[in-house]
Amino acid sequence: MIINRLLQFFHLFILYRFGSAIGDQLCMTAIIENLFTEHRLKSVVFSSYPEFFENNPNVCKNYSFKRMPKFFRNILLSLLRIAEGENIANFCFPKKKDGGLECFMRKSKAKISLIEAHSCYFKKKLILLQATPKIYFSDEELAVFSRKFSDLPDRFGIVQPVGKTTYTPNKEWGFANFQKVIDSAPHFPWLQTGMINELLLDHVIDFRGKTESLRELAYIVSRADFILCLEGLLNHLAASVGTRSFCLFSGFHPVEIANYATTIPVVLDPQPDCSPCWRLEKCPQKSKYCTEGILPEQVIKVITTAPSLNNQPAIKL
User: Fold this and answer.
1) Looking at the domain assignment, is residue 124 inside a domain?
2) Which segment of the chain is annotated as a signal peptide (predicted)?
């Protein structure tokens, strides 16, 4: 109680999150924006991915859990949990509440964003209907990145055909489907990002493993005309830098979970009765109905007929 009052007096808020969910921690930047615009609070951030909060004018201090000795980190996490209150919060849906995030979302059928879901138990009231992640680059950083990636095409699209299957396999659309999209427009510069050990599409510029940091990846996304991806980190990154995102949504969760102003959802309509399922294990149905009806030809049509964004020219594949 005393700690939270002191933080309030100094116009500070401690926001923390530990773990490997990269996209979730990028979404913390949306909370930071809201805390400052709505409450004039600057943030002290503890996270596993501090690079997302670099150069952010609304961040007072930025600490990395990964750089801390494990013993000290565990003590700090325990203290933060004990001290949670009006001005200290963990950006993570409590596992002990309502059976955890997936169980809560499945039972409630809530159509809220990931940002709203992870902060719904905050004691500080936030207005998050239009909340969007935000990454800030310094001029020096942009100059370094521009030199390093000077060979990027003037216009290109980013494609990442594989998602984070260690969380759930149910977001996947299928590598072969992505390949059919690429084959429909082989002369357009497609750039494939991702891990170096992921399958490589034909007729793409191989950028797997070429970025040395998440900030470099964000810069590449900011330079792209658009991205084509599964729901996940790349869609959040696109929103954080204002790049158009053609995002394939399965029936794992509702579109509202990450439907930003920059997001153009590609989703089966209507969804099957089992959607949203929020199943972490493999889909038990005879066929994965929520994605098998999304055809590559339809994806191409969505991309080529999409309205312009921020005065960007039309996409001609």
Assistant:
1) no
2) none
Statement: residue 308 has pLDDT above 80? no
| Total structural domains within the chain | 2
Residue 191 domain boundaries? 148-304
Q: Which two structure tokens, joined as six digits, stand for 54?
A: 């670099």
* Distance in angstroms (rounded) separating the CA atoms of residues 157 and 238: 12
Tokens of 106: 């499945």
**Residue type at 218?**
A
Helix extents (H) in the chain: 2-9, 22-39, 70-83, 101-108, 114-118, 139-148, 175-184, 214-223, 233-241, 289-292, 296-304
Q: Which residue has the tokens 């312009």?
A: 308
Last residue of a domain, one of 118, 139, 167: 118
pLDDT tens-place string over residues 287-305: 899 999 999 999 999 998 8
Q: Do 159 and 299 share a domain, yes or no?
A: yes
Task: Please answer whether residues 267 and 253 qualify as being in contact, where contact means their C-beta atoms are separated by less than 8 angstroms.
Answer: no
CATH number at residue 171: 3.40.50.2000
Kindly report the number of other CB atoms within 10 A of residue 253's CB atom: 24
- How far apart (Å, rounded) are the C-alpha atoms in residues 171 and 163? 7
Average pLDDT over all residues of the chain:
94
The rounded distance, in Å, linking the Cα atoms of 245 and 225 is 9
> What's the pLDDT band for 312 if we cut at 50, 70, 90?
low
| φ, ψ dihedrals at 140, nearest 5° | -65, -40
Q: Cα separation of 185 and 5, whole Å?
A: 58
Is 299 in the same domain as 157?
yes
